[in-house]
Write a structure and sequence with these properties.
mainly alpha
Length: about 80
């Protein structure tokens, strides 16, 4: 889907920018020109940015996160 019609930026472009290090709307403006013309795309671009960042975070998580440790915390009786 097109996010910024003025600069022909799609959700995919934003996802690629995030994978290359974009973290803020300002980063997207600098690299892609998003919200640099009329600004109507700023809210949608920010939503796409947040979604791409969340997806990147989910895929970067190591497997087994949130599982119980393999050792026990048994207390000895005194």
């Amino acid at each position: 889907m097109y996010v910024c019609v003025c600069n022909a930026v799609t959700e995919r472009h934003i996802g690629l920018a995030v994978s290359e290090g974009a973290r803020t709307l300002r980063d997207l403006r600098t690299t892609l020109g998003v919200a640099g013309e009329c600004g109507r795309c700023a809210c949608c671009a920010r939503d796409c940015l947040r979604s791409a960042l969340a997806e990147q975070t989910e895929t970067a998580r190591p497997t087994g996160v949130g599982l119980a440790p393999s050792f026990s915390f048994a207390a000895e009786a005194v």
